[in-house]
From TrEMBL:
Region (Disordered): 189-209
Organism: Marinobacter xiaoshiensis
Name of the protein described by the UniProt record: Cbb3-type cytochrome c oxidase subunit II
Composition-biased stretches (Basic and acidic residues): 198-209
Keywords of this entry: Heme, Iron, Metal-binding
A Pfam family that the UniProt record links to this protein: FixO
Annotated Gene3D superfamilies: Cytochrome c-like domain
Claim: Kinase is one of the keywords in the record: no
InterPro entries named in the record: Cyt_c-like_dom, Cyt_c-like_dom_sf, Cyt_c_oxidase_monohaem-su/FixO
SUPFAM superfamilies noted in UniProt: Cytochrome c
Lipid biosynthesis as UniProt keyword: no
Residue span, Cytochrome c domain: 44-185
Length: 209
């Protein structure tokens, strides 16, 4: 009986320790994380586009987390921007960090490609812009019409990727997804970004104060 009780108490203590380490402490740490002042909440349209992004599996091929140069120097060299910090994801529920990079990181795609026309054309057929791209096309996010109606967003697809007749117009889902892409611009300063430490062999007079 005493042995059973000891096992139960030990198991409860292990569970408590795991809860404190994996749940409580990270929650307290993240609650105190500073949100960058220039980070803006998503608009209603951008939130809709975010759901389209999730629904079409974009998160499986694209990450949204440039890494620190000390860990992965290639991220900065590719032009993906500064390392992300926890505060950058304050309005992301759920976060879309991603686990693979079949395609490029999209943390700053809105800064790299700030044109909605580029974004829409790329969604309709990536090969129309990037030769040899393996990204799937999303023509179901668009409509093929003979004559666009007033207010339609026409997407001018270059031959041979567009239709021979008529026009391609973006649906509300396509426009929302494009607006979400444009919202991915984290080029503002990150107050909590760790400062680079000088190398130990660097002369003291050359080190940053």
């Amino acid at each position: 009986m005493k042995r059973t009780l000891a096992i139960m108490v030990g198991a409860a203590l292990i569970l408590l320790l795991a809860t404190l380490t994996l749940v409580v402490m990270p929650y307290l740490q993240m609650s105190a994380e500073q949100v960058p002042p220039d980070l803006k909440p998503y608009t209603e349209q951008q939130q809709r586009g975010r759901q389209v992004y999730i629904a079409n599996g974009c998160v499986y091929c694209h990450s949204q987390q440039p890494r620190d140069p000390s860990f992965a120097p290639g991220d900065k060299a590719r032009g993906w921007g500064r390392p992300s910090v926890p505060g950058d994801y304050a309005y992301d529920e759920p976060h879309l960090l991603g686990t693979m990079r079949t395609g490029p990181d999209l943390f700053n795609i809105g800064a790299r490609q700030p044109s909605i026309d580029w974004q829409l054309m790329h969604l309709y057929n990536p090969r129309a812009i990037i030769k040899g791209s393996i990204m799937p096309s999303y023509p179901f996010l668009f409509r093929h019409v003979n004559e666009p109606a007033e207010g339609d967003k026409v997407v001018n697809i270059p031959p041979p990727y567009g239709p021979e007749t008529g026009k391609i117009v973006a649906t509300e889902d396509a426009l929302a997804l494009a607006e979400y892409m444009l919202a991915l611009d984290h080029t503002y300063p990150a107050p909590t970004l760790p400062k680079a430490q000088p190398k130990s062999d660097e002369p003291k007079e050359n080190r940053a104060p």
